[in-house]
Amino acid sequence: MVENITTTEFDFARGELLLIDKPVGWTSFDVVNKIKFSLRPQRIKVGHAGTLDPLATGLLIICTGKFTKKLEGFQNEDKVYEGIITLGKTTPSYDLETPFDGEFPFEHLSEAKIREVAQGFIGVQMQTPPVHSAIKVDGERVYEKARRGEEVTLKQRQIEIKSFEITSLDGADIHFRIACTKGTYIRSIAHDFGKALGSGAHLSLLRRTVSGDLDVKNAWDLDDLITKIKALKDQA
């Protein structure tokens, strides 16, 4: 039985900061559980800073052991996201997690208009989170209420969009890069962006690339990390 996984590379019990490139289809909690399970039989605390939706990929900050006390600090950092907002169709979740519920014309929109409206989103503002989100109301995740068809009213929260760059346009697809403060829902920006253009839109791709000074370029592939942990256990 492995009693401890402590090497010159890792000391999970004392505390490690792990940058993970979260794969699509995984929840942030799935990633935490995968790492926690890989460390068994040790009972090591594992947590994450800054939830990513299942359809999103990119930088997920994981802390183990005593480093979990640092999670709040990492969570408070500004973030950078890249992705695609697709014009012409809306969904209840504001992304591709739910079926389309509306279709709108968008062919009349010029590149100049799209870029102009994007600049109007920069600054401090109040944002309403999506009802299909992990926010808790009365002790329950609101997406559970939304899936049952219950009406959910969420309070607005203050956010700041520090930059909103349109990197390219491809038909209905608007490729973007957004820098923002913690707690910003890019899905809500996509939805509100479509409305501001007099059309409709949803988020069709999202990737978190930066959080504070941490970059996804330095992140582990999840499978590679699990393989590394297994190798360390075999050596112990």
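The above is record 1. Record 2 follows with the same two-line structure.
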Amino acid sequence: MAVRLGIEVKYYLYSHQHKGRAYAKALQRCGFIPDEQNAEVVLVDRESYIHSGGKPRDIVEEHIRRGSKIIVFPHSVLPPWWYDGIVKLQSYISSVLVIGEGQKEAMRYIEPAARVDVTGWAWCRQKQYKSADEIKTILFAPIHPAGGLRPEGLRANKDIIYDLKRVQSKTGVRVIVRYVGKLERQGLKQYSRFEWVKGEPDGRTAEIDAADVVIAEGTFMYLSVARGKPTVGINQHLPIRPNKTCDIHQPKHWHLYGDNIAYPINYQQGQLWELIQQANSGECSEWRGQFIGKQLQPKKFGALIEEIANADR
């Protein structure tokens, strides 16, 4: 049981998409008690939004008034880049949780004063890398809109579709496009020789597991690497920025850590088939070790959250 002086630790986790489920399950396995009204520790994916000027979310303000410890758990696979000169990391944040040691290292440049703790990989069960004897099925996950889509995302989506048509014409491979949201908002329209699957941002890996190689960015790219699939990243050479205000809000120190975060196999126009073959020739194991790392261990995670809950009481 997770206890503090004989009292069970109560928590509240505000989940984003599927991303909080594994953390909540881990805490419950350790004996933590979900209790929104009396939570000693509160886990949120973001305590404020980029477009709010750093104002805390109402639910965070409410729990601060109650004396709860506030912990930020991973909103995405990247380190929380919005703290890099866009939104101030407030002093009431007890810890920023990140997936791997690579993200923790990046936080040294983003916000050196923050307490940062590594959780391990929580969003699917990992598998060992396995190359395909023959590339028969390519899965493409276009960059999807979130309140819009930055221009470089639209451009990459269109370029990849164009190159996939050329690859299919040359090799006869099966192409599956798994998209989220409306196609037209990501610069695409259906092409009859491809298979189109409308997905949800729910962390499912069925399409990944059935493919020989995956082309993606963000969470879906990380899921593919974690499942041991040959993977080609998208726009890894460009700074991350929000979709809505991409010309205004950009990380200030990306040049110091962006190259380290970037997945080593990155889409380049006109080179897709060569990159697919490169991805299928061996794993980017060093990158995987740094940015996906080991599987989340519920007991270790529970002990970490308990230690944060008890700190400075």
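The chain is about 30% helix and 15% strand.
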